[in-house]
């Protein structure tokens, strides 16, 4: 214990500005936690109550909002059960207890951003700036501490998995297992699977085995009880929905028949999948960034919490390369997320007026995404060293 205290004091002296960012962020979150929550959090609370009562949330989904499905793997469902049980028996508000894992995700993400910059020999000031751009970001504060969405947990888990990608070596299990847990938290890390299968061939079996064990193990109960409904909710449910959220496809939805709009979404998703296969020559970090941004650009469903997925990668590019385009996109995503959500929406029209301002904001942000992706793809690539190439393609170093 004394050694741990001495080490903590040493870290505080070495990184005072980064510590200050963390303290300020935690204070802000402590203020926001009890103030309220959104419909996603209400649906999650009902899902926890249903599960404690023995109800299958995939065959009998909670109806706290319009979406008629629990379209996630059950990792977060299981993670929140002890907090729901404690809240019911200790009479503590689930609005506070249920957000604690989300806060842990925020802290993990901020620490990993700082660690990434520390590994690249940046000082405390740069580390604090990088951590602050995420941890004190208004959209991040709103999304987690106030609204209660759990995207931050997956963001942190994906960054943790990526941190172990090169540390793990070719025969380690830390990266495959952490990657499987990240996919189980929220499915978007599966976007980088084509890169992993094509560029990390010596790890391919471990990655696929970890995905099977983690996802299969977590889902086994529901696969046995209601396999068809479970797989439909996880894999197919969102694919059949009409455009919604902060996407340019919402503009099209206002002027074309529903079936035409629905048919438009399928080639766009096919284009997204094709791009993931064609862009595997990129380095892993750039591939993660491009994959997430292309999803935001081409998916028919884009909500403000999805913007969190890209924020750490934009922070890396902004701080390391001083990329203006990354800074502009980071500001645009943060502003749109804060100004157009279920709690705050000054851009939305009153009554039945046409949402000109809102649609213009969607198109402007999507243009920023498109320009930034083009900038990333146009950057000259340095030739990989033998060690880096070995970690990419699985050849012996």
Walk me through the structure.
This protein has 397 residues and is mainly alpha-helical. Helix content is 70%, strand content 1%. It has 20 helices and 2 strands. The protein has helices at 2-14, 16-32, 39-52, 75-90, 94-97, 100-119, 124-135, 138-146, 151-167, 174-185, 193-199, 204-225, 227-236, 249-253, 258-278, 284-298, 307-321, 324-339, 356-378, 386-393, and strands at 244-245, 301-302. The chain has a two-stranded parallel ribbon. Helix 6 runs parallel beside helix 9, helix 16 (284-298) runs antiparallel to helix 19 (356-378) and helix 18 (324-339) runs antiparallel to helix 19. The longest helix has 23 residues, at 356-378. The radius of gyration is 21 Å and the shape is globular. Residues 1-6, 383-391 and 393-397 have low confidence and may be disordered.
Quick structural overview:
This protein is mainly α and 397 residues long. Helices cover 70% and strands 1% of the residues. Helix 3 (39-52) packs across helix 4.
Arithmetic mean pLDDT: 87
Query: How many strands, which pairing sense, and closed or not: the largest β-sheet?
Result: 2 strands, parallel
Please indicate the percent range of residues in DSSP E strands (runs of 2 or more): under 5%
Count of discrete alpha- or pi-helical segments spanning 4 or more residues: 20
**Class by helix and strand content?**
mainly alpha
- Strands side by side in the biggest sheet: 1-2
